[in-house]
Amino acid sequence: RSVSDAFGEHLRHLGLQDFPCGLGSWNKSCSDARTSRRLGLDPAGQEDTLPLDEESPEVLLELLRDQHSPWALPPGCSPQDQHLREMAVLAPELVRGSNIFQVLRSLRIVGKGVEEVDDGLLKFQQLEELILSVNQLSRITSANLPRPLKVLELCCNAVADLQDLCAQPPPDLQHLGLGYNRLCSPLQDNCLTADCWPNLVSLDLSFNNLTDLLGLVSQLSSLQKLRVLVLQGNPLALIPTYRGFLVDSLPKLSILDDILIGPDERHQFHGLAKQPELVRSEARVVVSIGEIKGVPEPGAQQQLEVGSEVPVVTYSYCVTYEF
Hints:
The protein is of the alpha/beta class. The protein has helices spanning 3-14, 28-39, 57-65, 79-90, 100-103, 213-220, 242-249, 263-268, and strands spanning 106-108, 129-131, 151-153, 175-177, 202-204, 228-230, 255-256, 259-260.
């Protein structure tokens, strides 16, 4: 299933051509426009008398905005959806046919089972934000992404390879979200460098399977505009020197894993980037168990007298952690 298919289905669900939206006879603004064109009149000079089957734009908008209205959008819909429906009342010509591709600056297709980024996206010539989270994308063909794109969010997909995405990426992209995917180390050469992403400000690689901290830093260090980086949830984040090494290796970074990098922290880790031997392929895990119920406490056994023939019962426990 492609992005274009999901978008077409989404438009039908919004009902942009059905009451109270669209160019129907119920829309006074549309009726006035048609009358004005036919008679050569100024709509402002006409009497404000509505036929019985017409409603003013204000009344139609109220039907869309009132949460108790049968035409209200269900909870969870995006502001983009509400904006399109209101536009379908005030200027329905703009959302008819191919005109809608010239209007949208943000497109949100979430949880729709999308498997392909097709070339139909190139019709969105003004698109600046594309959110395709919680789908089934494994590869993204960058040649099919609109050139004006500034935000690309691909969280919770199945992306394991960045080669196609980095082939012809949008040149002005500022945020790339790849959290909760299947990226592994080592990444392809130059896939996260300034050659591909010269204007990248924010990068989310959280909760993948990245293990090569040195290799990743060697690529990210070329991103001169990078200010926000999220790597938490990867195995490399368990390395004891992980945060300090990143803070010192990327001096222009402002936020790492949603935590602001202050002057004190930068001073504390100064010089760590020149000691890559400290970045060892090992992890440190601290586990704290607050309370256990339903098993006897080993230390509570009674001390038996020397020579006692009473049977002794011992307990032993094995705790397993799976990574």
